[in-house]
């Protein structure tokens, strides 16, 4: 019983430590790789969107538009998505190894009205430790499988024919 309690406390402290010191690396095929931390996140332009969680309840999420993050990383030449740039995609990874893919036209306002964000707040409060400190929110997906929690990296990659 003591060993089970010790393991539980160990994993709780480990996840709590991650939540306090977390950062998201932004890289891949970009001209300006950078890191997002809890400290510099507030300096990025904040927006709020509404989206349903997997339990069907609507929540208000606050964070940064993924398009703004990719633009800051200089991933699209001249910020005009066309030609070879249309073969680029975003690979988002979480602490547990879970990964999702988002095609660049899914975030470009010239292609869509959908706004995908990297959130740090839900209903005005910091994301809970089991979901944050950073989470991608894809509001128009019918299933929330791409609303990935505990994000640690956002990489822009180029699809290549095998």
Automatic annotation (TrEMBL):
Transmembrane segments: none annotated. Pfam families: Oxidored_molyb. SUPFAM superfamilies: Oxidoreductase molybdopterin-binding domain (SSF56524). Residues 56-140 form the Oxidoreductase molybdopterin-binding domain. Residues 1-19 form the signal peptide. It comes from Pedobacter ginsengiterrae. It comes from the Bacteria. This is Oxidoreductase molybdopterin-binding domain-containing protein. Keywords: Signal.
């Amino acid at each position: 019983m003591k060993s089970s309690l010790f393991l539980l406390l160990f994993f709780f402290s480990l996840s709590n430590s991650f939540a306090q010191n977390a950062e998201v690396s932004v890289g891949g095929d970009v001209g300006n790789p950078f890191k997002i931390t809890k400290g510099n996140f507030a300096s990025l332009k904040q927006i709020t969107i509404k989206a349903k969680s997997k339990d069907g309840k609507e929540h208000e999420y606050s964070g940064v538009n993924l398009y703004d993050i990719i633009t800051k990383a200089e991933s699209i030449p001249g910020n005009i998505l066309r030609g070879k740039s249309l073969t680029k995609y975003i690979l988002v990874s979480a602490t547990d190894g879970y990964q999702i893919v988002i095609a660049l036209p899914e975030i470009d306002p010239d292609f869509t009205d959908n706004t995908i964000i990297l959130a740090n707040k839900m209903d005005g409060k910091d994301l809970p430790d089991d979901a944050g400190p950073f989470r991608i929110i894809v509001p128009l997906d019918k299933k929330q499988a791409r609303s990935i929690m505990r994000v640690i990296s956002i990489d822009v990659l180029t699809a290549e024919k095998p």
